[in-house]
Design brief:
Elements (H helix, E strand, L loop, with lengths): L15 E5 L5 E6 H10 L3 E8 L2 E7 L1 H18 L5 E6 L5 H16 L3 E7 L8 H14 L4 E10 L2 E8 L2
Parallel strand pairs: 1-4, 5-6
Antiparallel strand pairs: 1-2, 3-4, 6-8, 7-8
């Protein structure tokens, strides 16, 4: 957990402080010694959150509770920021119509999960002579998926591989 270390309790160097409660109520401007004794009597810590001229702005809070809540919030933010997973479907230039339907159903499941889809067609050895047939097969498969996916990067040929990247239609 990356924590921007703020001055706590005795680390605060100001003579006068503006005290804010844990519910964000602005209380008063008093000397640091009085604020520290008030916080200790309530079993709370003082954390500096800013400066206003020569007066430090401090908040009375339970520091360990603050760290716990911050850690939980960071975890939630991390979960929300996950990018969709990329799934890969491999087909061949000799794939039958039925097998293409099976791959289409797999792609539908991936689209429901919101996954990005990469379609890959690889040619091997002597199959490299049939690149035109392979390209037509890729176009045919992408046409089948046009209802559920939109093409992000069209068919790209890289020597003996054909790749296409598709994003689900929301």
């Amino acid at each position: 957990m990356k924590d921007n270390k703020r001055p706590l309790n005795n680390e605060i160097r100001a003579k006068r402080v503006q005290v804010i409660t844990s519910e964000w109520e602005n209380l008063w401007v008093i000397s640091f010694i009085e604020a520290r004794s008030k916080a200790q009597s309530l079993w709370l810590d003082l954390m500096q959150i800013g400066m206003n001229k020569d007066v430090a702005i401090v908040k009375m809070l339970d520091y360990w509770k603050y760290l716990y809540q911050k850690k939980k919030q960071d975890q939630k933010n991390k979960q929300k920021s996950k990018s969709p997973e990329m799934k890969t479907l491999r087909i061949s230039y000799k794939i039958s119509d039925h097998d293409m339907e099976v791959r289409k159903r797999q792609a539908e499941k991936f689209a429901e999960a919101g996954s990005v889809l990469k379609v890959n067609l690889m040619l091997r050895w002597r199959e490299n002579h049939y690149w035109a047939i392979a390209e037509k097969k890729m176009e045919q498969f992408l046409e089948m998926l046009s209802e559920i996916y939109k093409v992000d990067k069209g068919i790209q040929r890289n020597w003996n591989n054909f790749n296409a990247i598709l994003k689900p239609i929301k």
